[in-house]
Write a structure and sequence with these properties.
It comes from Streptomyces massasporeus. InterPro entries: Flavoprotein-like_sf, FMN_Rdtase-like_dom, NAD(P)H-dep_reductase. The chain is of the alpha/beta class. It contains six helices and six strands, in the order βαβααβαβαββα. Strands 1, 2, 3, 4, 5 and 6 form a six-stranded parallel sheet that branches. The protein is globular and about 50 Å long.
């Protein structure tokens, strides 16, 4: 595209921290799509590998040294991102606590940036988690992408090597990433001309 040179930095935030989780399979599939694009560069932030602190300091106080160490592994990566994709399962009709915790530890890192969703689960495919995440992300001044990728009965959608068996999911991924790229470039360009006000 004319006028667009630098690829967008996309932080892929993986929310599942459960033992025996399916998130790595879904994330590998997604990053395969991201790797095929010249306009997007992925940085996978897996909350099972880089957990956030779970106790917030008293209002007006600084986080503990241990909490600052944990945040230092994630916060700069979220700040550097131009866009996000949240990979989430659905737990009890909602999203995992690890995602909410990561969102709540950050503020400006989300401001004026687009967020896409890839969800997975049983019958609902994680869509109830996504609908709740849309409300949360609006509160932190992020822009959510309409199109999603949702894996219903996710465990049957991939073969034993982790390859997706559903061509419709690949089509959905392209639509999601096309929208994410459009919004990412539009918002990055706008913020380069005028400071975002939250």
């Amino acid at each position: 595209m004319p006028g667009i040179t630098e690829p967008l930095r996309v932080a892929v935030l993986v929310g599942s921290t459960r033992e025996g989780r399916f998130a790595p399979v879904v994330t590998k599939w997604l990053t395969g799509h991201l790797d095929q694009r010249d306009d997007l560069r992925a940085d996978v932030v897996d909350l099972a590998e880089t957990p956030m602190p779970t106790v917030f300091p008293a209002f007006g106080r600084q986080p503990s040294p241990g909490a600052r160490e944990q945040l230092a592994l994630v916060s700069p990566r979220l700040a550097a991102a131009d866009a996000f994709v949240l990979v989430t399962p659905e737990y009890n009709h909602s999203f995992p606590a690890s995602l909410k915790n990561a969102i709540d530890w950050h503020g400006e890192e989300w401001h004026g940036k687009p967020v896409g969703f890839v969800s997975y689960g049983g019958l609902s495919g994680g869509l109830r988690a996504v609908e709740q995440l849309r409300v949360v992300m609006a509160e932190v001044n992020a822009t959510t992408i309409r199109n999603t990728v949702s894996f219903h009965d996710a465990w049957s959608r991939f073969d034993e090597d982790g390859a997706c068996k559903d061509p419709a999911a690949d089509t959905a991924a392209k639509a999601l990433l096309d929208q994410l790229a459009w919004w990412g470039h539009a918002l990055r360009d706008a913020k380069s001309r005028r400071r975002y006000v939250a």
